[in-house]
Amino acid sequence: MRSIYRFKILYLNYLVVIITALFLVLFKCTYEQEIILNFIENCLFAFVLVGLSFLVKSNRFRRLFGIVAYILFSLSLVIETIYYLLFKVFISSSTLYLVFDTNFKESSEFIETYIGTFEIFSILFLSLVAVYFAMRVYKQYNGTSAIGKAMSLRLLIGLGLCLGYLKFSTQIIYNLPYLVLKSYNEYSRVSKGFDAYADDKTGNFQKAISPITENKNGVHILILGESTARSHMGLYDYYRQTTPNLSSISQDLWVYKDVISPNAHTIESVTKMLTLGNYENPDDIWKGSIIQLANSAGFQTYWLSNQRPIGMYESLITKIGRSSSEIKFMTTMHGRHNRILDQSLLPELHRILESPNDSPKFIIIHLAGTHMLYKNRYPKDQQIFTDTPNLKFLSQSNTETVNHYDNAVAHTDFVVYSIINKVKQLGAKSTVMFLSDHGEELFQDADFAGHNEDVATRSMYEIPFFIWQSEKYKNDVNLKFDPDNSYMTDDFFHSMADVLQISSTAVDSTRSIFSEYFKPRKRLLASGKDYETLFDLNQ
Q1: Label partner for 204 (CA 20 to 30 A): which of 136, 277, 440, 487?
Q2: What are 313-324's pLDDT values in tens digits?
Q3: Which of 48, 43, 67, 46 is nearest to 144 (CA)?
Q4: How far apart, in whole angstroms, are the C-alpha atoms of residue 452 and residue 441?
Q5: Band of the pLDDT at 458, cuts 50, 70, 90?
């Protein structure tokens, strides 16, 4: 009976911090059923942790297990509570996958962007409650003792029922420790598979050839934007002229109006974009990249990036870039004070363009683009937009955020235009293509700025996609253009191969938006939902 009493007392310590978190969520957020489901999951998981501690025979290790379990439980509760306060959803595997590939700079910018006064108060208040009751837990375990075989058996049955319920009711999806382990295992599997890209420059591509390689002076540049929504570009009829330079040469661009990314996060989008992986064949991300294909076809390849190469581990995207003949990262610093602008890439690009070569150049440029914090993405003396924007969710803070974003778009316009202009001056057989990894929500469909698949909106997927071609290229290569073609960039590998005129058994012309054989396909997002259906585009 004494053990049962101790069990109840220890369990009550968990309930206090769980109920405190529930109160904070209900105080700030509208009631949703998943809040109660998450509450039930936390109560059951707390029961499991207390129960497991009573199965430990050693008094010393029982106390150690009990206090560590309580601290980790409280920490996970703080994290999931703050996340819900910010986004009105609980953490998903997709979010954790992103965390594993995030560097300190991005983390600090995320905190500065989203964490407000109430969130800071909630972190402090919930942490203080947890610390106070953690000290009580430590003292209360001093009075516990090992339980007998009969009690252990009953406890094991109870724990089994709890875990079985969580698993088969699918409420396990609300358990943060479970999601962390599951997501980390998947991330590690993918990361290990990408290690081969650093050592294998050509992959397993068979008979990869391109007539373009006969022109030694050819230059083909792929510019990867970051978090750039086409709805905020003047080139796409945004009411603000955020792209005056590109708009001035719009007659020289093929601008596609209905292109989306497969994901609303960089990792998942770009790893599909640059490899053979797509929705139907997700594991093909390990079967070869466009860089390896270009290498095998005789191109000199370059990876030029304004994004830091290292996250918790080497970035998955960085590993793909390691297949390039030459790699250059402009950013190696930690912290929010790292504000290297994309324009710093231009001198390095000029060096590459002017260097002698025995084969045409294929250059991938990865911009910082319009990634948060937006105010760090453009020169401070180029604050073009300072007035009140047209917003569905209007406030002073939202106004400042959108103005910063539009100014960042204007800087991207300057950088991309400068690249096109420089390549044009070469007079060679050349192309420059621009697309973004994904889009960005900016207070139009939700009172939110950023990208998060847990709270997906159209703007997070709708991206700019356009190509510039030199006269020599257009005279020799007959690409097809339909600005209204619907397209998702998990097939971009095949489109880029078409631009480079590479023939290979791996290239599927029906998946290239530039091919006469192109076949539009149903655009299924990572959630498995059809893009048009999810956002009611057929209404």
Answers
A1: 487
A2: 457 888 899 999
A3: 67
A4: 9
A5: very high
